[in-house]
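Example 3.2
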Amino acid sequence: MKHRKKEKKVNFSPGTIKRLSLYLRKLKKIHNDDINIISSNTITRLLNVTSDQFRKDLSYFGEFGKRGVGYNVALLLREIENILGINQEWKIALVGTGKLGSALLGFEGFSKLNLKITCGFDNQKDKIGNRIGGVKINDIKDLSKIVKKQNIKIAIIATPPEVAQDVARQLVKIGIKGILNFAPVSLNVSKNIVVSNVDMATELENLIFFVKRRL
């Protein structure tokens, strides 16, 4: 396998990054099955994508694999982790510790992605000072002090929709660069802030629409 020298300055779709995440999960399973070298045909069959799509997704970031030999699974894993940025630990702040926020605090899958929620915030007095999943719940008034002290750049919003925009403004003001938004509302932030919205109601509506068409 040829090592990636430098990422190409090209435009790729969000779909490419989503597929890389899916490739990574499947490759981990392949690696756990003690498969060290895998052919192009085999890996694309297991990933349920075409060979052309797989090669195109990787080509944005460098040259991978060796013609006639295939892919070194362990090396490809590390390369994709590096591309996605999860080859280092990322600290995350969580705002809103209701049912959804509490569930996120108890989700063990984050650690497998080198992600760690290191602090939670709420404005409910009965929650402040408690620990959920080992994470301390702090007063929202201490948001700036704690986020800056821990040098956190990513936050999760799991608040009611009516306060999500105000929370987003506070997060951007104190240096947060990326927000995962679970509140069912569109956030108005500057273009240099990366926002990923998780709207479960909308996703279910889309799912129901397509299921209905097949009945």
